[in-house]
Amino acid sequence: MDPERVVDADELEQLAKLLIDRRQLAEQYYARACQLMGQSGANQLVTVLKWATDTAAELRKRAAIARAAEKGGDPFGALSTFGLTTAIAMISGQDRTRLRKGLKSLVTDSGKAGPEQRAQAVREFFGKLTAAERSWLAVDQPGLVGRLDGAPAKVRYAANRLLIERALAHEQRNLIELKTADSRNPQVKLLEQRMARMAEFLQPRMTGDGQLKPRQFLLFDPADDGRVAEVFGDLAKAKHVAVMVPGITNRLDNYIDISNDAKELIRDRWTGKDLANTAVITWLGYDTPEFGDSVLSAKAEAGAPALHSFRAGLEAAKGAKFALLAHSYGTLLSSKALQQGTPFDSVVFMGSPGLGPNVKSAADLKLAPGTQVFAMRAPGDVVSYTEAHGRDPAEMSDIQRLATGASSGHSEYYKPRNTGLINLQAILTEDRCVQTFVGSPRLDDEKLGASGVRVLVRELQSRVPQWKTAELAATFDPVIKDGLDGKTDPKTTINRAIQELRKSDLGGYLSAADVAEITGKALAAAGEPLAERAVMFTATRGAYPR
After folding, report:
1. Residue 164 in contact with residue 134, Cβ under 8 Å?
2. What's the rounded Cα separation, in Å, for the pair 467 and 270?
3. How many CB atoms lie within 10 A of CB 257?
4. Of 121, 158, 293, 295, which sits with the fewest C-beta atoms within 10 Å of its C-beta?
5. Are strands 321-327 and 212-213 parallel, antiparallel or unpaired?
6. Do 418 and 453 contact (CB within 8 A), yes or no?
7. Which residues contact 481 (CB under 8 A, 6 or more apart)?
8. How many contiguous H segments (helices) and E segments (strands) does the chain have?
9. At 392, phi and psi to the nearest 5?
């Protein structure tokens, strides 16, 4: 045995087996003694039998603890946090093999089934297990169980908590190594932010009425940018459930922004308490794009089936209503998921760059009868102005556009105590007393120069190869950020974009004449006379990349 190991799990289990074998022999002695001496004379053997049974159980429990400790985390703490049984030590080696094989077969056999059929197969599998078997699978196969749509929510909560503990320990080791090698490496800050989020995940959340509740995750995967799905509220009792789908540049390290929006959504504006019979879920279950590849639909197409599967696996109170609240690039992904048949009772698209070139109206989404569809576009939301993926749903005649109040730019739809948030809560709770948008529905009437941004994006989409989008993202990153934050108006955004384009490394794809043409079209669409721009082209032509 390794001298550094205090406990050997295999040896403990061997001792437990030995005691059980001897107990069986003692039972035979007890039966024989009863025949020869009577029950009163054989009672002394009862003490031996009880001791053997209790000691064997304790040895198996300690063996399970030792094995779990080798993998990291606190499995028994994760189980008890969500009220699951910790009596997993009595799961025999034969039963463990059966459970592992059963879970593997379930995943393999249902892999080609539709989301609803797959989720139902998972429910049936777990429904046949004992409480101890469900708990054992959560700690033995947390990476699989934690993301398994259709598995009991509390079992997934426990599995993902264990994964978070292990990931945090792993990141801590990585950070030490990184700082030792190069303390000024920019990855140090990113790692520290990721670790901060994970540490927060392990701390309880303060509810609106002052109670401390453990944080509940239906998905946790720290790989790459990270994927997370968190539940706020009691999903099992919820009659109203919202699934929030965020957009570009959302990652594990900055997940705090999404969670803050969820807290605002579930908070009653009058009492400050969490809304009754309500659950809010943040679904960061796909690889969100950065600025450059946000003009491509690939990540939305890849993420849509995951959203469909996630929704199929959700269970709430009987008759619960589900609302889909999609923002930014998340509206494109949600559009594709809805077209695949993902069921929601109401849908809200916020700050949308378009729902796909094939979606001209809500009818194109092929929703179930009675599904309510809404849209929001705040003044100065540059993402909506681009229409990079089709028509803005806020301008579709069969979609009800809602007021956004004091929100502006791209990121204030969940602004506290504001009309936009009040509207979202009304849809979530089926209040239906929503405040609709009043004014011209035309995008270009809302913001002078908005059409110029749209032209600029379309020109770049048509002229720059998709594989150059990373360079395009690096070029426009500061410009887009200021536009999204409402720091610049559309015409200023266009001018800054062109200036950055001139200095960029895209000269092989955009000649001086190309840049001049793009500039002219964009600024003309934004309301700038072409004659004035022609003077600028002549004066600055030499500055364009060649």
Report:
1. no
2. 50
3. 12
4. 121
5. unpaired
6. no
7. 291
8. 21, 10
9. -65, 125
Q: What are phi and psi of 217, to 5 degrees?
A: -120, 125
What does the alpha-carbon distance between residue 275 and residue 255 come to, in Å, rounded to a whole number? Answer: 22
Q: Which residues pair with 231 in a beta bridge?
A: 216, 281
Rounded-to-integer distance, Cα 317 and Cα 443, Å:
40
Q: Please write the tens of the pLDDT for every residue from 186-230.
A: 889 989 999 999 999 999 999 988 999 999 999 999 999 999 999
Q: Write out the H or E segment, with its range, that includes residue 231.
A: strand 227-232
pLDDT digits (tens, 9 = 90+) for 10-42: 777 677 777 666 666 666 655 666 666 666 655
Mean pLDDT lowest for which of 53-62, 166-175, 536-545?
536-545
pLDDT of residue 17: 74
Q: Please write down the long-range contacts of 480-487, taking CB distance under 8 Å and 24 or more positions apart.
A: 480/291, 480/382, 481/291, 483/382, 483/453, 484/382, 484/383, 484/409, 484/410, 484/411, 485/409, 485/410, 485/411, 486/380, 486/408, 486/409, 486/410
Burial class (CB in 10 A: 0-12, 13-18, 19+), 34: middle
Q: Percent of the chain having pLDDT more than 90? A: 57
Contact in structure between 145 and 155 (CB atoms under 8 Å): yes
Query: What phi and psi values does residue 349 have, to the nearest 5 degrees?
Result: -105, 125
Report how far residue 127's alpha carbon sits from residue 541's, in angstroms, rounded to the nearest whole number.
Answer: 71
| 349-379 pLDDT, tens digit each | 999 999 999 999 999 999 999 999 999 999 8
Those residues with Cβ within 8 angstroms of residue 143's Cβ, 6 or more apart along the chain or in another chain = 159, 163
CA distance 56 to 50: 10
